[in-house]
Specification:
By secondary structure, the chain is an alpha+beta fold. It is built from eleven helices and ten strands. The chain is globular and about 80 Å long. The structure holds flavin-adenine dinucleotide. Flavin-adenine dinucleotide binds near residues 128, 134, 363 and 370.
Amino acid sequence: MKRALFEEDHEQFRELAAEFNSREISGKYAQWEKDHQIPREVWRSAGENGLLGLAVPEEFGGMGIDDYRFRVVLDEEFVRSGHLAVALALHLHDDLVLPYLLAYGSQDLKSRWLPRFVDGSTITSCAFTEPGAGSDLRGVRTKAMRDGEDWLISGQKTFIGNGAHGDAALVLARTDGETSRAGAESFSLFLVERSEGYSNGQPFDKMGLRASDTAELFFDEVRVSDADRIGEVGQGLRYVKEQLPQARLALAVAASAICTAAFEQAHEHASNRSTFGQALTEYQNTRFELADLKTESHVTQSFVDRAVLAFNDGELSESEAAEVKLWASESAKRLTDRALQLHGGYGYIMEYPIAQSFTASRLLTIFGGTSEIMRETIGRAL
Ligand SMILES: Cc1cc2nc3c(=O)[nH]c(=O)nc-3n(C[C@H](O)[C@H](O)[C@H](O)COP(=O)(O)OP(=O)(O)OC[C@H]3O[C@@H](n4cnc5c(N)ncnc54)[C@H](O)[C@@H]3O)c2cc1C
């Protein structure tokens, strides 16, 4: 069955992304995994090549592309080439921070921030999670207190992607001044630039996706202008809820690309590896495994493609996004495990792409809302 998602423009964009990928990333990525860092000049180059902030309007330096299929192309190119941490780093910048600036930022905020966002000179992170608040964001304790025309932000965030090397963070903070249990209108969003009082821990030693740095952030009375508040005071949690479909769809897209790659990697390995005098593909068990991998990756891709089109039409609901994230991320976890098994011992060695896919997919049922929270969301909407 021919895939019906893409048109000519998307395929042209794929060539651009593939060319960037091989010129700027291939051959260097293994070192970035050791350094826990994607070099800053790569962000600049991605910006110069028009790969950042695709949805930013032309008046702010972007291309104003509101067709999510272009983001899918980019994700697929990075995932299939095994550059999974690059996909994640760009996802944080483009899918988790940008939508808030576009949807709720003032004209002044957009004109100051978006050009830097698009050209790669400012790397952003999305700082919601705290040591005491992951699935349940009402547990957020980071506080923003009024100080004249400004705000003073104090608190701690954890597991923040692009946290160690980022220049600014989208911070969810409590603005009701209370210490008791928070309500729906207790939180607001701020774009906080690295300045006095803003620091980070060392990147965490993650099991996978190591080139994308993940770190704690500390805010000690960081002064933030009211002009860098995003949207209305007290509406932070509502905005987070409204942006969940894109955040979850993005992870489903990456998960689906991982499923496809897992099949391809297993197929290639099994075709080239012999035991007892015959190729692995001569064994019925191997063929059955490959048949399952191929079929399940196609099912996942079809579901995700449909969700992408629904999102483009403004029709992907929160619970549908949860379904597609749940399905695709659990599939990626299952399929990479089975594909790894077909690699034997080689599957356990990180220089093999399947080992990278396996560890990356393990994050996808946790990050951006766990599978249990996805089931809660779907169940509540029944
Ligand atoms: C590598 C990595 C990168 C990350 N990047 C970012 C980032 O850039 N920005 C950011 O803000 N966050 C980030 N996170 C945080 C991530 O989104 C959270 O880890 C995730 O939301 C889960 O929160 P938690 O770790 O506090 O787990 P908890 O909320 O403590 O959950 C623990 C377990 O309890 C289950 N559970 C919790 N509540 C319920 C319930 N109501 N019903 C049933 N089961 C439940 C969960 O499903 C899970 O299995 C990242 C995490 C990792 C590991």
